[in-house]
Amino acid sequence: MGFEVGAVPFNQEGWGPVDTPSPPSLANHLSHVPFAPFSRSDKLGRIADWTRNYNASASRKDPHHHHSVFDFALDDPSPGGLSPGLAADEDPSFRLVDGKPPPRPRFGPKWRFNPNQNRSNLPQRRDDNPSQSDKDHPRGGGGGAGSRFGGPPDRRPFGRPYQPRREAAVSKSSVDIQPEWTMLEQIPFSTFTKLSYSVADPPEDLLVCGGLESYDRTYDRVNPKNERRLERFKSRNFFKVTTTDDPVVRRLANEDRATVFATDAILSALMCAPRSAYSWDIVVQRVGNKLFFDKRDGSQLDLLSVNETSQEPLPESKDDINSAHSLSIEAAYINQNFSQQVLVRDRTKVTFDEPNPFASEGEEVASVAYRYRRWKLDDDLYLVSRCEVHAVLDNKGQRSFLTLNALNEFDPKYTGVDWRQKLETQRGAVLATELKNNANKLAKWTAQAMLGGADMMKIGYVSRVHPRDHFNHAILSVVGYKPREFAAQINLNPANMWGIVKSMVDLCMKLNEGKYVIVKDPAKPQVRIYEVPPDAFENDYVEEPLPEEEQVQPPSEDQNDSSAKEGGAGDSAAAVEEGGEKKEVMSEA
């Protein structure tokens, strides 16, 4: 037998076979077989199937289906077939390059907006477990993930125009994990929410240091129509001293007044850990039978997050005035100045047992009192924490302690709520929006107020004069809340807060002597405990001015100056003495 190749005619007019009904050179050519063009998304398993029976009965059963020699959708693979397993739905290695859905009519009764369409194919959020409130959000389940990843359009409620969402910044760990570190524990937040522990209330006040000024009641009458410009207090110094650099803590450790030592900022970060989204870290030092919870120099715990728990991601670039880094510095600057502006300017202070332990003689310091309070966690386990209160108020002959904090509005487009329009008529809606976008920050403020024994927490609403002007701000309103009532309102359970602290203390007390660090995972709702070398974090922080591109506001120089003074009065002085006094005190403890 032989195979004879017929003559192939030359096409002088273009590419492909000559456009003739039936070339005479192909004797066995089948007539009336149309040429079937194919798409790049079609699977080519065989060139053509000439064994299919093209009879009229199949066309009568399905008049809309046109059979073709290139159509393999009806193949029934069998062991005796020519090519078993070539059906498109049974080939696991086959993938379409073009995965675009087929076009559909945009008008008519069949088109409906479905926010959850193709939800299973979309990238999931970091927590992988959206809450019911997120599912019921009118913008779509899971915070409108479809609009971010090519799904259906994002529909905003209340008739607001659609705005494309910005891509979220890549989450980074608050501390660089070194290869020589050893991970000891990994604790998911789901276990934190189930913990509960009760402590005696009120705790014992061991010592109160510092001085407080009185709160100015006229700020309770401030409203958006009668706003007050935020002033700058450049001459007053603020101190963010960690636990082991506190001379009072060293003294109490020498006197064996407690086993565990911390500050209210560190404890509140632990207590409200399940609400956190950004990464943070806490240094733990086990010295003898003592346990010290510290923060690193330049830690994120010294700044205030903005829109941490919001569904709207912030810009990633630090040059943007609305980036997370720029807003955190701006929020810290606003919070410090607000806490000093709402005080009575009569130069009188309420003094306590000892002066400010971090200030040098003659130095002007902010209005703050440090209450060293002791809680009993177990029969032979006591915890001492340095807690802050910011002002005092005389009410019918009774002295009340206040904490002063400020929420800041940077651009109403991100939240959809304009404070200047809604604060007077819909204050509840404004607070609800802030509870959604800043759940962790408000919870930590409430926890710190309860730890410090404050009778009232004053929350100010501070907004930019113009959304693109991050230098000038105005106080729009000041609202007071009782800490325990506000905690119940935001679903912050004190028993759960102390349950988290008790479990972490018990876990760390089982560790050997050394240094450890608790790190919140930047992408998952969990914390990890690492064992680190004894000299970790000792010399990794150098006080120097920020580059010009990172200076997002003029007061940054003043902040650097104040932080430098702070370092000179507290952190830096303690670091110089670290090789002698601090280690000696801790070793004696």
From TrEMBL:
<feature type="compositionally biased region" description="Acidic residues">
    <location>
        <begin position="538"/>
        <end position="551"/>
    </location>
</feature>
<feature type="compositionally biased region" description="Polar residues">
    <location>
        <begin position="114"/>
        <end position="123"/>
    </location>
</feature>
<keyword id="KW-0648">Protein biosynthesis</keyword>
<feature type="compositionally biased region" description="Basic and acidic residues">
    <location>
        <begin position="124"/>
        <end position="139"/>
    </location>
</feature>
<feature type="region of interest" description="Disordered">
    <location>
        <begin position="69"/>
        <end position="175"/>
    </location>
</feature>
<dbReference type="GO" id="GO:0098808">
    <property type="term" value="F:mRNA cap binding"/>
</dbReference>
<feature type="compositionally biased region" description="Basic and acidic residues">
    <location>
        <begin position="579"/>
        <end position="589"/>
    </location>
</feature>
<dbReference type="Pfam" id="PF05091">
    <property type="entry name" value="eIF-3_zeta"/>
</dbReference>
<protein>
    <recommendedName>
        <fullName>Eukaryotic translation initiation factor 3 subunit D</fullName>
    </recommendedName>
</protein>
<dbReference type="GO" id="GO:0005852">
    <property type="term" value="C:eukaryotic translation initiation factor 3 complex"/>
</dbReference>
<dbReference type="GO" id="GO:0002191">
    <property type="term" value="P:cap-dependent translational initiation"/>
</dbReference>
<keyword id="KW-0396">Initiation factor</keyword>
<keyword id="KW-0963">Cytoplasm</keyword>
<feature type="region of interest" description="Disordered">
    <location>
        <begin position="538"/>
        <end position="589"/>
    </location>
</feature>
<feature type="compositionally biased region" description="Gly residues">
    <location>
        <begin position="140"/>
        <end position="149"/>
    </location>
</feature>
<dbReference type="GO" id="GO:0001732">
    <property type="term" value="P:formation of cytoplasmic translation initiation complex"/>
</dbReference>
<dbReference type="GO" id="GO:0016282">
    <property type="term" value="C:eukaryotic 43S preinitiation complex"/>
</dbReference>
<dbReference type="GO" id="GO:0003743">
    <property type="term" value="F:translation initiation factor activity"/>
</dbReference>
<comment type="function">
    <text>mRNA cap-binding component of the eukaryotic translation initiation factor 3 (eIF-3) complex, which is involved in protein synthesis of a specialized repertoire of mRNAs and, together with other initiation factors, stimulates binding of mRNA and methionyl-tRNAi to the 40S ribosome. The eIF-3 complex specifically targets and initiates translation of a subset of mRNAs involved in cell proliferation. In the eIF-3 complex, eif3d specifically recognizes and binds the 7-methylguanosine cap of a subset of mRNAs.</text>
</comment>
<feature type="region of interest" description="RNA gate">
    <location>
        <begin position="300"/>
        <end position="314"/>
    </location>
</feature>
<keyword id="KW-0694">RNA-binding</keyword>
<dbReference type="GO" id="GO:0033290">
    <property type="term" value="C:eukaryotic 48S preinitiation complex"/>
</dbReference>
<comment type="subunit">
    <text>Component of the eukaryotic translation initiation factor 3 (eIF-3) complex.</text>
</comment>
<comment type="similarity">
    <text>Belongs to the eIF-3 subunit D family.</text>
</comment>
<dbReference type="InterPro" id="IPR007783">
    <property type="entry name" value="eIF3d"/>
</dbReference>
